[in-house]
Amino acid sequence: MHDLGKSDSFQRKIERQNKDLDRSPDSGREDRALPTPKGYDMHVLIIGAAGMVGRKLTDRLVADKRLGGRDLTRFTLVDVVEPAVPADFAGKTSALTVDLSAPGAAAKLIGERPDVIFHLAAIVSGEAEADFEKGYRINLDGTRQLFDAIYAEGLKSPYKPRLVFTSSIAVFGAPFPEKLGDEFFQTPLTSYGTQKAIGELLLADYSRRGFFDGIGIRLPTICIRPGKPNKAASGFFSNILREPLSGQEAVLPVSEDVRHWFASPRSAVGFLVHGANLDLSRVGPRRNLNMPGLSATVGEEIEALRRFAGDKAVKLIRHEKDATIDRIVSGWARDFDAQRALDLGFKAETSFDDIVRAHIEDELGGKVGG
Fold first, then answer.
1. Which of the residues 136, 151, 159, 192 is marked catalytic?
2. DSSP codes joined into one string, 186-254
3. DSSP class of residue 120?
4. Is the preceding peptide bond at 222 cis, omega within 30 degrees of 0?
5. Which of 93, 94, 120, 267 has its CA 20 to 30 A from that of 335?
6. How many CB atoms within 10 Å of residue 255?
C-alpha cells in the first residue's frame, strides 16, 4: 500500500503517469501504452488457465490466431497446477505453476508486460464459504496484488494493458425483483460474492485512474460444465445433466422449482473474447457488466434432459436435499435484464436445449449415453 499523502514526489510521479496514459481525442498523440497497428504482436496472460474456462479460452484464442486486430504470438498460461501447452500454437508459450497470492508472484508475471490479461483464477463459491481465510487470500488478496503489480509496472514507463476480470452474479443478494436490471445494487450474501464485489470496485477505480483498461464480466452459472464435479455450490446444476447424459447417477440437492441464470461454456468464452476486443469507450466508467443468459428452473433443465436422453436418463437423478446448498442458492438472483451487455454485442443461448446440445457436441462427440 502506498500512502499518497506522505510523498510529494510520489504524487507528482502519479500525475505524470496519468498524463502519459490519458490520450486526449483532440491531441493527435499516439497512446504509447497500447500500440495497435495491424500486425502488431500480442502477448496474452491467462491466470487460471488450467481451469475449464481457461482451457477453452486458450483453445479459442489459438484457433482465432488474433485478438483486437493483432497477431497472437505469445501466451503465458498460469494456474496453481501446470496448464497444458496448446499443441497447435506456433508462437511462444510459457506454462507456469503460480499462486497469484504469493508475495512477488504477480509482479513477476506483470514484469513481462502482457498486452491482454484474463484474470479467471478464483476459489469457487462453496469452498470460499467453507474456508473463509483461503477465499479472501485467493479471491481478494491475489486480485489486489495483480492490480497493484500492473500499477507499479506503469510507474516505470507507460503501461496500460487490457484486463478482463471474471466476476459473478453472486455480487447480488436477496431480496430480488423478478428480473434484475443493470441498476440493481450489490448486497452479496456470501463471502465469494463479497470478494468478487470488492474486486469489481477495485477494477473500476484502477481503470478510472488509467492504470489499466479493465472490464468485469459477471458470469451466469456456467452449465453444462465438463469434467468432474467441483466445490461450487452451483455445481449440481451441471451435475444433474452431465452425469445422466453419460449414463451415470447424479444428486439433486434442491427442489425442481428453483430458478437460476445460466450460460454455456461456449458463451462464457465468447464473453471473455468479446470483452478483450470491445472498445471500452462504449462502456464508460461502469466497467462491470451483467452478461446475458437464460433463466430456467431445475425442472426445465430436467425436461431438456428428457428430450435429448429420455426417461432413462432422468431416472438417474437422485433427490437428496442439502440445507446448506439450498440456503446459498436461495440467495442468488433468478433472472436478469442484461440489456446493456446485449447492446454492446455480448450473446448467449436462449433455450436450455441449446445449452444441452452444445455440451453433447463439444464434450460427447455428438452422442448421448455412457
1. 192
2. P---SHHHHHHHHHHHHHHHHHHTTS-EEEEEEE-EE-SPPSS--S-TTHHHHHHHHHHHTT--EEE-S
3. -
4. no
5. 120
6. 12
Look up 151 and say whether it is catalytic. Answer: no
Phi-psi region of 14 (alpha: psi -120 to 50; beta: other; left: phi over 0): alpha
Q: Hey, is 296 helix, strand or coil? A: strand
pLDDT tens by residue, 203-245: 999 999 999 999 999 999 999 999 887 777 889 999 999 999 9
113: left (phi over 0), alpha (psi -120 to 50) or beta: left
Closest to 163 measured CA to CA, from 150, 154, 145, 153? 150
- pTM, whole model, 2 decimals? 0.86
Q: How far is CA 352 from CA 83, 254, 301, 355, in A?
A: 31, 19, 7, 5
Q: Scanning the structure block, which residue is given the C-alpha cell 438472483?
A: 333
Strand partners, 92: 74
Cell 490466431, located at residue: 65
**First and final C-alpha spacing in the chain:** 54
Q: CA 183, CA 181: separation in Å to the nearest integer?
A: 5
Number of residues written out for the chain: 370
Placement of cell 516505470 in the chain: 156
Q: What angle do CA 130, 218, 126 make, to 5 degrees?
A: 10
CA 333, 337, 339, 344 dihedral sign is: positive
Q: What stretch of H or E contains 17? A: helix 8-21
User: What domains are defined for the chain?
Assistant: 38-220+263-293 (3.40.50.720)
